[in-house]
Amino acid sequence: MLMTPEEMGRADALAAESGIDSYALMVSAGRAVAACLLRCYPAAQRAVVLCGPGNNGGDGYVAARAFAETGMKVALFHLGDPARLSGDALRARQDCGMDSAGLDGFRPEQGDVIIDALFGAGLARPLSDEIAAVIARAEGLPVIAVDLPSGVSGLTGQVLGAAFTASHTVTFMAAKPGHYLLPGRAHCGRLEMFDIGIPRRILAEAAGDHHLNTPALWADSLPRAGADSHKFSRGHLGVFSGGASATGAARLAAMAGLKAGAGLVTIAAAPQAILVNAAHLTAIMLKRIEDVSALRDWIADKRLSAFVLGPGFGISAETRDFAETLIGRPLVLDADGLTAFAEQPEALFDRLEAAPETCVMTPHAGEFARLFPDLAEDSDLGKPEKALRAARRAHAVVLYKGADTVIASPDGRIAINANAPPWLATAGSGDVLSGTIGGLLAQGVPAFEAAAAGAWLHGEAGNRAGAGLTAEDLPTHLPSIHEIIDNGR
After folding, report:
1. Residues that constitute the known binding site for K(+)
2. What does the cofactor section's free text say about binding (predicted)?
3. Which residue of 115, 149, 158, 265 has the fewest C-beta atoms within 10 A of its own C-beta?
4. What homologous superfamily is domain 5-208 in, according to CATH?
């Protein structure tokens, strides 16, 4: 479960309305922060606790008191006027019973560990020069962030002027989108989650449509093979090849579709690409498709259950014609299949409106900017909001690729994928992703679930293949969907 800062605030309010002691929750949070420092930095000489003017600062005062109770040396600093504190934060400061100094009094010492309790996930404005100066002075010291490193937006992961780079981040009950979106993820260090006592029913009531992409989100949508299964019942995926000198991308996608569980995979190729493909194919079939008329004849066979168009296909009027012919059938549009509509994206979106959520679009940042230039340029929007607005405009599931891939559905669901290793950034990797999604679509997995599952399986394949992988390695390392089902993941 992911919760936006606004949703987490609502959960806090619902907890208080239900009779749960909000100060007891703060004490649990502050002590969890203290436990993190004591466990991770047993040789620390001094805990430097930086407290902000809200409840995040209240957690810091609780942590400071906990450190003092262990006999650790504590240096306590406050932002703003502590006399203006109210509610639980005021009580936490009073119970702390320690003197504090203004932030400008902070001077680092050898053996310091910083507790960043200035701002939590709800920060929506750039940090002041005063705080930026403190961040600069703390450079090189271990930092434990309370909820989220100060300066990182909990909603978008964007850095608001400056931000701490934490070694550990301690958050409570549910992670925020900013924990997993870049660049925020790079500022969080090791993320630790603590249950401080808010019932799950309250979290569920307050939560929205943001999710961390894990098998729990889509495993129930995966097909289960039965004793009577045969290759046609497992779906038939069609992948379109480029010309004679651009056939490799389609073969990568086709093999991934086969490994993802499709019963049959066929590469559709123009006459000049038939022999090149034939020389490299065994389990994957080959079909000659010379023009749109031949395509219409081929897809009249309803046993063809999904298609992948774009990898290596080329950018031309024919690309647009092929795409428009395929709309209405489960379809992955990637690479050239997207860029072909860069001059007139609305033509694609208008066609998709008649067949909503049958298409998965998989743009990287450059392709996204070609199709949705206004969204790409809007610095006020985070990646999830950009992907969601794009999905609603296009009437398609949008998988916005990157190190922090986001999958969005027109119905409002958003999944943030966080399991992909950096060595997936290699030529052909995206073709494997498209084929994996296509293989799932061919088996009847709905578009959003197929896109989310494909992204996770792709990341897991990268982890299993290891550093130094090439795209050719990825299909052989894809986990089988039956492994996911059998493991209950």
Report:
1. 56, 116, 150
2. Binds 1 potassium ion per subunit.
3. 158
4. YjeF N-terminal domain (3.40.50.10260)
